[in-house]
């Protein structure tokens, strides 16, 4: 049956956020209704808030909760199950999905509500409300397609399970699925927010020998060191060139020496070291993208995770930055996750103590605090803010 939800609504006129009551429809077909118990506040939500919209939208997408109702075509979860919800919309039947590459689904629209069935979410006057990223997680209930919902152990706290839907899925998956970091390789992570800290934990799981954490916020660097980074660089006050030099120096194994140094993009020598095997850019800025590429050794690979604004252009010297040093650059979306495989795997790693989701949670707030939590992201808040109080 349909339920009334308390939600944070993004209004199209001026982009203001306000609390409102929203009607969540009864699940049809392959839909699942979930009572939200925790939802993370992610940088992607901040991007969403900054985009123009033609109608009301509920942001939020990193959700954990309890299944309250299912459509007649749902067999993967049942009422009462604890679940994580992800924004990865995958049809399950295209060539990409059946080969385990659901993050490259060719028909994500198949997860939308059937045409003519009415909106999943609506205001009291019947106006349709859009679910941000296909989830609309800043609400006490969500209604999503079954492929976006994965059962998790009931012993996993909701505020940790929520991170499996985006931050952990993206960060750990970028290392294990996208980059396929091998034991003994070296890694630098530029940006140590929720996703960056998950990248670092993924690098630990992969057996990386050196993990360099880079951020403008010393608190974020300290957090990275606490979850497994072997060295940290606070880039506040450093020029881009100085940041690259500091990364290379931090990537040198103590006592190994520096075998001559490698030519930098400007033709100089990297006195601090020859560069690292993998660079993960989690910020989504042209400047940090360049730093990621230039911090690599010959044959190294840069993995771009951070969401760039449409229109962002990054200037690289293709000969000196890419071709001559034989560096690779790839974009990684949602950790190249196979959702039904990876979410349970990461949940079990967390319960086994090999993935510390608890350290990723910075603070817990109520639904009414979402506007201030989003604003805090701009100032470099350390750790993931998670909404755990969703009803009055």
Give a structural overview:
The model is unreliable at 255-271 (pLDDT under 50). The protein has helices at residues 43-50, 95-98, 158-161, 167-179, 194-206, 218-226, 240-250, 286-294, 318-323, 339-351, 370-377; strands spanning 3-10, 17-24, 31-41, 57-58, 62-70, 82-85, 121-122, 130-131, 141-145, 149-151, 186-190, 210-215, 231-234, 276-281, 296-304, 328-331, 361-366, 384-389. It folds into two domains: 3-156 and 357-389, Quinone Oxidoreductase, Chain A, domain 1, CATH 3.90.180; 168-335, NAD(P)-binding Rossmann-like Domain (Rossmann fold), CATH 3.40.50.720. 25% of the residues lie in helices and 26% in strands. The chain is globular and about 60 Å long. The strands form four sheets. Strands 3, 5, 6, 9, 10, 17 and 18 form a seven-stranded mixed β-sheet that branches. Strands 13-12-11-14-15-16 form a six-stranded parallel β-sheet, sandwiched between helices. The longest helix has 13 residues, at 167-179. It is built from eleven helices and 18 strands. The two termini are 22 Å apart. The protein is an alpha/beta fold and 392 residues long. Helix 4 crosses helix 5 (194-206) and helix 7 (240-250) crosses helix 8 (286-294). Helix 6 links the parallel strand 12 (210-215) and strand 13 (231-234).
- H/E element string? EEEHEEEHEEEEHHEHEHEHEHEHEHEHE
**CATH first level of the largest domain:** Alpha Beta
Q: What's the name of the CATH homologous superfamily of the largest domain?
A: Medium-chain alcohol dehydrogenases, catalytic domain
Distance between the termini: 22 Å
What oligomeric arrangement do these chains adopt?
A: single chain
Largest sheet: 7 strands, mixed
């Amino acid at each position: 049956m349909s339920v009334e939800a308390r939600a944070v609504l993004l209004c199209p006129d001026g982009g203001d956020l306000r609390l409102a009551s929203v009607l969540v429809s009864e699940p049809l077909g392959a839909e699942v209704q979930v009572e939200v118990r925790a939802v993370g506040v992610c940088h992607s939500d901040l991007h969403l808030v900054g985009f123009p919209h033609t109608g009301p939208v509920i942001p939020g997408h990193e959700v954990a909760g309890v299944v309250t109702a299912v459509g007649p075509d749902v067999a993967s979860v049942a009422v009462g199950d604890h679940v994580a919800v992800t924004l990865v919309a995958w049809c399950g039947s295209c060539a990409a999905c059946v080969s385990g590459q659901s993050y490259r689904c060719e028909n994500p629209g198949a997860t939308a509500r059937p045409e003519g069935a009415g909106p999943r979410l609506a205001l009291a006057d019947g106006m349709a409300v859009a679910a941000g990223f296909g989830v609309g997680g800043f609400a006490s209930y969500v209604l999503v397609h079954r492929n976006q919902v994965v059962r998790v152990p009931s012993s996993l706290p909701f505020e940790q399970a929520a991170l499996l839907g985006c931050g952990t899925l993206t960060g750990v998956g970028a290392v294990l699925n996208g980059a396929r970091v091998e034991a003994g390789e070296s890694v630098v992570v530029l940006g140590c927010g929720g996703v960056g800290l998950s990248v670092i934990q993924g690098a630990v799981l992969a057996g990386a020998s050196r993990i360099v954490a880079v951020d403008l916020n010393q608190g974020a660097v300290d957090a990275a060191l606490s979850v497994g980074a072997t060295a940290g660089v606070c880039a506040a006050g450093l020029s881009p060139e100085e940041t690259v030099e500091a990364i290379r120096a931090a990537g040198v194994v103590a006592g190994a020496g520096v075998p001559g140094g490698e030519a930098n993009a400007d033709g100089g020598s990297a006195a601090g070291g020859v560069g690292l095997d993998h660079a993960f850019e989690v910020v989504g800025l042209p400047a940090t993208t360049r730093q990621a590429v230039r911090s690599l050794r010959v044959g190294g690979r840069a993995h771009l995770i951070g969401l760039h604004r449409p229109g962002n252009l990054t200037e690289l010297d293709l000969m000196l930055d890419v071709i001559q040093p034989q560096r690779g650059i790839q974009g990684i979306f949602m950790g190249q996750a196979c959702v039904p495989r990876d979410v349970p795997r990461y949940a079990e790693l967390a319960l086994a103590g090999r993935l510390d989701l608890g350290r990723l949670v910075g603070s817990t707030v109520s639904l009414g605090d979402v506007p201030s939590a989003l604003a805090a992201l701009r100032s470099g808040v350390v750790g993931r803010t998670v909404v755990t109080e969703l009803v009055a």
